[in-house]
Amino acid sequence: MSSKSRKRKKKKLMRKIKKIQKHHRKISLVVTLLAIISFFSFVGTFAWFTSEDDVSNKFEGGKLAAEITEVFIPNNEWEPGEKTTKEVKIANTGTVPAFVRVSLYEFILNFKVDVTDQTGNGNLATASEAKKPGVDRDDTGTWQPAADGDGTFKQGNKFYIADKSWVSDPEARTGMYEYQKERKTAPQKFISLNFPDHIKTAVDPNATGDYWLYSNGYFYYSRPLKPGEKSNEVLSSLTLSDAIPNKYKGSLYKLKVYMDAHDATEPIFSEWRLNQNDPAYQLLKPQLK
């Protein structure tokens, strides 16, 4: 190999190394976690809960890690007018202080109602066999296609027919729950998310305790959580209205709770897309390293 060829290969290798180093400097110190609260009804409403909360990033010899914790009282027959306890908190399970924020996304799928008996009792229509695209109750990505194509959901030995879906898109950040906004459309208006008193919509320099600041779809904790600390609750419970019509009987409902954690450094603003006019920016800026 000639001297010139060796030099060209060496330069090419150095460019690759620099590119890799530059890429690693850009890795954000962020943790994103997901918990799913699900409610399903036939006659009553059945509920279950799962969480994925062991994601963590290591840096500077420390560990940025947090998880969603809960006090959840399962309600196997969530009937109209009843409240289901669901206290959501965030725990810092790492070794460094962490800012945290939470966002909420709702998903609803209802099924066709049998109107042939003309009694208005809201009994669900059934198919004689399964029809694709089918409904996977744990995968909200199947709900819209099933509703569009009259797909079925199997419960026991019956096949219920999907009718209409209302879905959010957490990846695109669309459909986020909006705190204190009046819910005028059905079926969302029949489901109430109940929050504690320490939720604010503006920075409160006179606050005597910790609080959550709501801004543009996110709930931000008022200060960084220390290692081993747990936040105040951000959500307390859910209530199914006693005015909900029979046509929503048996609907599938999911509330997805997303949590982001970040170390107390300047990149938090670009990572969380916050500008100087955002209340969250004003809350976090004075507390950075």
From TrEMBL:
Superkingdom, natural source: Bacteria
InterPro entries referenced in this protein's UniProt entry, alphabetically: BsaA, Peptidase_M73_camelysin
Start and end residues of each stretch annotated as Disordered: 126-148
Biased composition (Basic and acidic residues): 129-140
NCBIfam families: exp_by_SipW_IV
Name of protein: Alternate signal-mediated exported protein
Organism, as annotated: Vagococcus hydrophili
Taxonomy of the source species: Bacteria, Bacillati, Bacillota, Bacilli, Lactobacillales
